[in-house]
Amino acid sequence: MRLLSCIVLGSLALGAPSQAAQGRASKVAAAMPRVVLAVDGVGQTRNLPVLVAERLHYFTDAGLIVTLVDAPADPSTDTLISDGRADGAVAFYHHTFMTQADRGLASEAVIVMGASPQLKLIVAKRLAGTVRSIADLKGRAIFVGGGNSGKTTTINWLMTRAGLPIDSYRALTPTTPAAMAAALRDGGADAIIAHEPDASSYLADSGVLLADIDSIAGTRASLGDIYPSTSLYMPRAYVASHPAIVQKLVGALLRAMTFIKSHNAEEIAAVLPARPKGEDRKAFLATLEDDRQAFDTDGRMSVSAARRQLATMAALSPRYAGVNIDLTYTNIFVDRASR
């Protein structure tokens, strides 16, 4: 890697740093602003830009000491920014609706890194000749996700775009991949919305692809717009009081997105933490290659997509109907970085 080569060459030419140099470096590091980011699954490919930025030292290059806290469950990312243990969070954009409606905290996405939900809609093979469009799913049983999940929001967005109410299908609670594949085969389920690598296993075993909502092109074709997904969102009060820090965070993440766009899965995997032994590397690389498509965007929020996503969530959970969409995102920092 170029960065590693520079470090090695510098060490050979200059020798080990002196105690004085080390002291100066420590003082510089001590003076750098410190930021804590709660991440909804640090090792998940949906959060790839923030991990790449951390691994390639883009945050420190920007003059920040950033600590990533893994928060996939309890305490959640929203809990950590609400009680002040984290300065910001990395998760899907719709979390800004949840913090505002459920916690009374106005938070805004300062950069939208993902423009797709990284999902595929798969129909049981036995229905391949019958279910040919989203409208044909009316009355069908579909494995989705939790009420506020990207999977549920995506299927409901697909339904409303097809002119169907969101209660026009029967939502099934996810179980194990093996059990869900069996349900597709034996008639217990008619369709499933899934992420890789599970999506490929269903396609090989028991399903056919109805909609690709993984690539940005496929997302636009299926939903009529992008799907704002992985975002850095922060309390509006923090953004207002720390604009210089937010600008540096956004710049580092845009740099990470550029790296992801210009490198393949093998090259990206080389900078990530080592995978556990026994994990299927081929499947991981396939997922990484598939998911990296979602980050081929400029970081800006699509206003129409934000409004459509909120309307879709509010149709399922009316408590989100009162969310002020204008408080949930800003493009100011991405625009400044671009200039």
Condensed summary:
This protein has 339 residues and is of the alpha/beta class.
Task: Describe the protein's architecture and organization.
The two termini are about 30 Å apart. The chain has helices spanning about 1-15, 20-30, 50-55, 60, 75-80, 95-105, 150-160, 175-185, 200-205, 215-225, 235-240, 245-260, 265-270, 280-290, 305-315, 330-339; strands at about 35-40, 65-70, 90, 105-110, 120-125, 140-145, 170, 190-195, 205-215, 230-235. The strands form two sheets. Strands 2-1-3-10-4 form a five-stranded mixed beta sheet, sandwiched between helices. Strands 7-6-8-5-9 form a five-stranded mixed beta sheet. Strand 6 (about 140-145), helix 7 (about 150-160) and strand 7 (about 170) form a beta-alpha-beta unit. With about 350 residues, it is α/β, with parallel strands linked by helices. The longest helix is centred in the last third of the chain and has 20 residues, at about 245-260. Helix 3 (about 50-55) packs across helix 12 and helix 7 (about 150-160) packs across helix 15 (about 305-315). The protein is built from 16 helices and ten strands. The model is unreliable at about 1-15 (pLDDT under 50).
